[in-house]
Amino acid sequence: MSTAPSPQLTHDPERRRDLAHVGPVEVYTPALEDSVDFFVRLMGLREVNRDATSVYLHTWDDYQAWTVRLIRRDAAGVGRTYLRAASRQAMQRVATGIESTGHGHGTVSNVPHLGRVYLFTDPDGHEYGLYWDSAWYRADATDRPASKNQAAAYPGRGANLRRLDHVNYRAADMPAVSMFLRDTLGARCTEQVVTDDGSPQAMWFSVGNKSYDLVYTGDRTAGLHHLAFATDTREEILRAADLCLDAGIRIETGPNEHAIQQTFYLYVSEPGGNRIELCNAGARLILAPDWPTVTWTREERARGTM
Ligand SMILES: [Fe+2]
């Protein structure tokens, strides 16, 4: 049997896995009640709390108290993306690293169901919150699951979105952002698209064994590119496209499959104007600790989707 050497590394495998996962996330909408209706009735989320300016929603497989906070604002966009640290000590390590970059903004304790949250921004100004303490979701009599290893009963409603999958940001300063994600947050770039001169045009970062959790797409300005939720099956994405057509929700593209990350997808525009992706990457995980960044050129992308 022949063996091949480990591929050339683009990250340090000695680096601690100090981030556990991405989520929950805040989303701005100028049409709060219409956005709530979209997520609850069509996408299968559950309203779990509300205050004067926002509504908290939960996906059925999220172990945490809430998945998305919709916030009433004049324009669509993304607020804070919360990152759960892998431990209390990991939170301190990451916060110390961020502090040394000058991107830290102190700690707050007023985010519902999260404990102390260390606020920071990436070099493009996108807002993040790092936390460890988190209240777990408590199902009530109306959504108690039969299985004790499941957060809530399967909703059986609309697209039945299972969980938050990833946040895709528009990035104005791709080199600074990619250095920050790799060197300060310890994320791995699992795939990237490069321009003809070799500079990155889009980068997919993973903080655990999911193939990606945070994506940055080069653009003239920063902001939200799209927010993605995972479904159990591809068939639910096909059905969701029909549901959205019937409900007058604009489909931007799909259903189709990206060659990049092999993600089956549907992009729709929710009533507040945010681009929402429904995605399914099957059982694809990145298990290799020495996974090299897969680079796609324009020519390779031109071969199209799969
Ligand atoms: Fe995406």
From TrEMBL:
Organism: Virgisporangium aurantiacum
Cofactor: Fe(2+)
Similarity remark: Belongs to the extradiol ring-cleavage dioxygenase family.
Protein name, entry field: Catechol 2,3-dioxygenase
InterPro entries with a match to the protein in the record: Glyas_Bleomycin-R_OHBP_Dase, Glyas_Fos-R_dOase_dom, GlyoxalaseI/FosfomycinResist, VOC_core, Xdiol_ring_cleave_dOase_1/2
UniProt domain VOC: residue ranges: 21-133, 163-281
UniProt GO MF annotations: dioxygenase activity; ferrous iron binding
Keywords, in A-Z order: Aromatic hydrocarbons catabolism, Dioxygenase, Iron, Metal-binding, Oxidoreductase
